[in-house]
Write a structure and sequence with these properties.
InterPro entries: Leu-bd (IPR028081), Peripla_BP_I (IPR028082). It is built from twelve helices and 16 strands. The chain is an alpha/beta fold and 407 residues long. The protein folds into two domains: 223 residues, Rossmann fold, CATH 3.40.50.2300; 146 residues, Rossmann fold, CATH 3.40.50.2300.
Length: 407
């Protein structure tokens, strides 16, 4: 869960210190400001756009706050948001466009782990930082053999969301010990995120003593799940676990309930969106989803962010990743400030600034609106909080918040 901006030519604007000069501003540095850009990549239309827009506007609020507070004297920030439509190839094109724009010092996104796989090398080759507020597949930071041999993949890639190694196990523990479910039917959408999460849930649920009475796969974009519903019904499962996005799961749960299969559907953070409930209607009652972090509405530090998001009338859903996108953008902004301060109050130029921003993000250590922001040796967040939400009276309600030890 395509607007392609052409790469700026060197003649399109005068570039200074990896940015453009804005002589109308009077915020220091000889009476003018340097404009730096933070790129955003997410699905801003079509599938997954509800959560993708939450990422875009989370970054927008962070940039507006930094400009208002003059966080980096002499620097004005703006965003460049590109729509990847949840397609890896489009994400790669967007990454190329962002690194080709000399005013861009870092990027926030993407939403989808599968899209991230196509973008990481592009950013790494340009030595430009990329911070995802939502990617959860462990392999992105720790390699495909992450369960036995963790290896940092790209020094330029970070995330403010915790991984499926924790999310899948957290969900399995709640299903087995919290809900007392013993027979799970596991489904995934064949995508990097969904398949990976479903496998971790599958393995964890069995380790706890539960039985996986059936597994199946669907395709993104599918609308008719009659055969899947029949398989679940015949398996006599008491819970369905779905690895994927809300676009398919909202239809699966509706068709399940319409067929008389009154069991909950449980999913990951890709399912945690208001759109899920709006589409599934009453069929969503009792369904569950895990999401990274603690509920944004309960965090005192996020109060102003939530108020601003609502007051601006921004589209999308800030609840899933908005705060994590805000914190990701601030990690980049703080790194720009650190680079400027360490260079005698002057911005390093060109590629040197990008390199120093990568180093600065790795050293992040501040209180964000989603919690403490810092990264480990793999680029993963040190914030391991997770929450289980359940649909009650037509809304997501937090039912358990905590951490999970994957062992």
């Amino acid at each position: 869960m395509v607007i392609l901006t052409s790469v700026l030519t060197t003649g399109a604007l005068t570039l200074t210190a990896c940015g453009s000069r804005d002589n109308s501003s009077k915020s220091g540095d000889s009476g003018s400001a340097t404009t730096l850009t933070i790129g955003v990549d997410a699905p801003l239309s079509g599938e997954n756009s509800t959560t993708g827009l939450g990422i875009q506007y989370g970054v927008q609020i962070a940039v507006d706050d930094a400009n208002k507070k003059n966080t980096v004297p002499g620097v004005k920030f703006k965003i460049k948001a590109l729509d990847d439509k949840a397609l890896p190839a489009t994400g790669q094109q967007n990454a190329t466009a962002l690194v080709g724009d000399k005013s861009v010092v870092g990027a926030v996104g993407p939403l989808n782990s599968g899209v991230a796989q196509s973008m990481q090398q592009v950013f790494a080759s340009a030595n430009m930082v990329e911070i995802s507020p939502s990617n959860t597949n462990p392999a992105l930071t720790q390699g495909k053999d992450w369960q036995t041999n963790k290896t940092r993949q790209y020094k330029t890639y970070f995330r403010t969301a915790t991984t499926d190694a924790l999310q899948g196990g957290f969900a399995a523990d709640y299903a087995y010990n919290g809900l007392k479910k013993k027979k799970a039917f596991v489904v995934d959408d064949k995508q990097t995120y969904g398949a990976g999460l479903a496998k971790i849930f599958n393995d964890s649920f069995k380790q706890l003593g539960g039985a996986v009475v059936g597994t199946d796969h669907v395709n993104t974009g599918d609308k008719d799940f009659a055969s899947l519903v029949t398989k679940i019904k015949n398996a006599k499962a008491d819970i369905v676990y779905y690895g994927g996005q809300y676009d398919e799961s909202e239809l699966i749960t509706k068709q399940l309930k319409d067929a008389g299969v009154k069991i909950p559907l449980f999913g990951g953070d890709g399912m945690y969106a208001t759109t899920y409930i709006e589409t599934a209607g009453k069929a969503a009652e009792g369904d569950l989803a895990t999401a990274v972090g603690v509920p944004v509405d309960t965090l005192p530090a996020a109060k102003t962010f939530v108020e601003t998001y609502k007051a601006k009338g921004y589209k999308g859903d800030y609840g899933a990743y908005g705060a994590y996108a805000y914190d990701a953008a601030n990690a980049i902004i703080n790194a720009v400030k650190a680079a400027k301060d360490a260079n005698g109050g002057k911005l390093p130029s060109g590629d040197d600034l990008r390199a120093k921003v990568v180093d600065g993000v790795q050293k992040s250590d501040f209180e964000g609106i989603s919690g403490h922001v810092s990264f480990d040796e793999f680029g993963d967040t040190t914030n391991k909080q997770l929450t289980v939400y359940q649909v009650e009276n037509g809304a997501w309600k937090a039912v358990k918040t905590g951490t999970y030890n994957a062992g």
